[in-house]
Amino acid sequence: MVDKNTKMANSVLKKIEWLGHAGFMIKASGKTVVIDPFQVTKDIKADLVLLTHSHYDHCSIADLEKIRKPDTKFVTESDSAGKFEGDTTILKPNEKTTVLGFDIKTVPAYNTNKNFHPKESGWLGFIINIDGVNVYHAGDTDLIPEMNSVKTDIMLVPVSGTYLMTAEEAIEAVTRIKPAIAVPMHYDAIVGTKKDADFFKEGCKDICEVVIKD
Fold this sequence. Notes:
Blueprint: H1 4-13, E1 16-20, E2 23-28, E3 31-35, E4 48-50, H2 61-67, E5 73-76, H3 78-81, E6 87-90, E7 96-99, E8 102-108, E9 124-130, E10 133-137, E11 154-158, H4 167-177, E12 181-185, H5 194-203, E13 209-210
Parallel strand pairs: 3-4, 4-5, 5-6, 10-11, 11-12, 12-13
Antiparallel strand pairs: 1-2, 2-3, 7-8, 8-9, 9-10
Helix pairs in contact: 4-5
């Protein structure tokens, strides 16, 4: 029997579209929310854009100009906010805000054994509540202690390795967090391949449902 949380998570999952790499679009409550757009090929007009950090494949100015409207709102950290103009809420890790009716929490995102994403930069993962379901976009991160306290229904998790956690570490992250559904990301663009996503899915089969988005 499918429990209520899993049923709700599956309902929200249908509203989440992978845009490639670490980019996602969520359509809910009559709004379009976009996270980390990069090399977007779809015609999108975003009401709200969340940016995890300032690297070009997450804070892509060309893509922001493509998807933004005059009244688009942005939520990000200070490095990214300095790269564009607009109605922007600047957050640090472990903070909360509500924008356009969406409750948003930030989670730290950083490297533990490499220096591409230093902890002191204050870059972000996001937990956004969609129709009563928490969706956690982990950002560019390694397996970090702060994940032990994350509570989410859907986890969008990087699996590529090199600049962030490997697929093996992503499996451990899911083991700690225990979402109802996990979606692998951050592959097939710069680093990582579909094999990483497949490995992740196989490794999570006894932990939670894994959906590989096309």
